[in-house]
Amino acid sequence: MTTARRTQKQRRDQAEAALLHAAAELVVEQGVRSLTLARVSERAGYSRGLVSHHFGSKQALLERLARTTQTGFVPGLADLPPGRERLLRLIDGYIGALGEVGVLNRAFLLLWAEAATASELAPIFRERDEAFRADLREDVAAGTSDGTIHPDAVPEEVAVAIVGQLRGIGLQRLLDPGAADTERLRRSVTEHWRRALAPIQP
């Protein structure tokens, strides 16, 4: 019985991953306004009923897509305690990951940009960006507490600046993949923040 339940869960997870990938492909190819549950089911090769069973609505599908594409974008962060090193690892890893942006991450960046004018997307990405900033604020606060970040650093301001920079680099990569060498950029941007946040020497 345990094996049967596990196999059923595996089938469900596989179907959900295929549906999300199909949704991401459609967003990249045609934009969010053309996205429908029917088109997702057709692209993924599943029935419309299964798509509705998994997500229920286009809004729920978009929310799941936003969460799935953002989660795990920079691997290994969960193993690090909050602080300066986790923050710098995030910056370095994020820009490095932009060097090979797959369809899921392309979809996330396109949806994020479109959220400025699409009312169905705005609440999703406000929540996603706030979660991103909250992690960064936690890192800055931990760094100021342990002395690895200078005490004048304002967590909210640093978080807004970093999110804006990283998302902006991502959008530039979408528009013009050759605009920046991400391997060089990741080093220079990470070093910039290392110096900017370093404790002030007496």
TrEMBL record:
One of its GO terms (molecular function) is transcription cis-regulatory region binding. SUPFAM superfamilies: Homeodomain-like, Tetracyclin repressor-like, C-terminal domain. Residues 13-73 form the HTH tetR-type domain. Residues 36-55 bind DNA. The keyword Translocase does not apply. InterPro entries: BetI_C, Homeodomain-like_sf, HTH-type_TetR-like_transc_reg, HTH_TetR, Tet_transcr_reg_TetR-rel_C_sf. It holds the Pfam family TetR_C_6. Keywords: DNA-binding, Repressor, Transcription, Transcription regulation. The keyword Repressor applies. This is TetR family transcriptional regulator.
